[in-house]
Design a protein that fits this description.
The chain has 246 residues and is mainly β. It has helices at residues 192-195, 233-239; strands spanning 2-3, 9-10, 28-37, 40-49, 52-60, 66-73, 77-82, 91-97, 107-112, 119-125, 136-139, 144-146, 149-157, 163-170, 178-182, 203-211, 214-221, 225-232, 240-242. The mean pLDDT is 94.
């Protein structure tokens, strides 16, 4: 879809519908994130099939023709957000592997020489017992470059499966280092359309628009509605608290 004001959207002509293709996307693709690096858009999405849930990727320059790169991070993995700038000549991306027996649903970071092949993985953000993000965490949209570091808006859920949004900050020159994190959520389900729907008590984002200090976050409400909310980037930065750099 396309919009001239960021609020009213329409389906333009001449653009293909993105949908699952091939056996690794047999059950569909979902939760797409988009990163613009130089003149190329990198689309990372959750690819679902009988093989499992992994991260698929396509790239495009014009939104009409796409190069398919297949599964770039194998199952079980999702919530992949690519940084919109190379750092020291390398691509970086956040992602979320899942472990049933050991570990948990944590946010990891990976490096790549070409934006396609990923390695040097490191765990960044873990769930926090007794807090709003105690059960699972996952990256939102592409990290935002600020003067204080790379700002990431992420989702977290508790044992009651209530999804809220929080933020954390990574070092500008070395995003494998987490500088700060919000203690509480910056957004939580409150309105009727966030509390009741296909999956209630959920706010979940994987897209945004930046206009100076204004951050417009597009988010799913109750897994049924698409909404938008405006934030001040400086206000979010002010809510961050320093954390240990491991």
């Amino acid at each position: 879809v396309r919009s001239d004001d960021g609020i009213n959207f329409y389906q333009p002509e001449g653009y293909p519908l993105l949908q699952g293709e091939g056996e690794d996307e047999a059950f569909g693709i979902e939760d797409c994130r988009v990163a613009l690096i130089e003149d190329t858009y990198y689309l990372t999405f959750t690819a679902v099939s009988s093989h499992g849930v992994g991260v698929g990727m396509r790239t495009t320059k014009d939104w009409k023709t796409f190069e398919k790169h297949g599964i770039v991070i194998p199952p079980h993995n999702k919530d992949c957000a690519v940084f919109e700038e190379k750092i020291n000549g390398k691509f970086y991306a956040l992602h979320r592997p899942s472990s049933v027996d050991l570990g948990g649903n944590y946010i990891w970071i990976a490096q790549s020489p070409d934006g396609i092949h990923w390695g040097k993985n490191k765990c960044l953000i873990k769930t926090r017992k007794g807090k709003w993000d105690s059960k699972r965490v996952g990256a939102g949209a592409a990290p935002i470059k600020t003067e204080k570091g790379w700002l990431e808006i992420y989702h977290g859920a508790n044992e009651n499966h209530q999804y809220c949004l929080g933020a954390f900050l990574m070092d500008l020159n070395d995003p494998t280092k987490v500088i700060a994190q919000t203690d509480g959520p910056i957004m939580q389900p409150q309105t009727p359309y966030e509390l009741s729907g296909f999956f209630g008590h959920v706010v979940f984002t994987n897209g945004h628009i930046i206009n100076g200090d204004e951050l417009t976050i597009y988010y799913g409400a109750a897994d049924e509605f698409v909404c938008a909310a405006k934030f001040s980037i400086q206000d979010i930065l002010a809510q961050l608290k320093p954390c240990d750099q491991k």
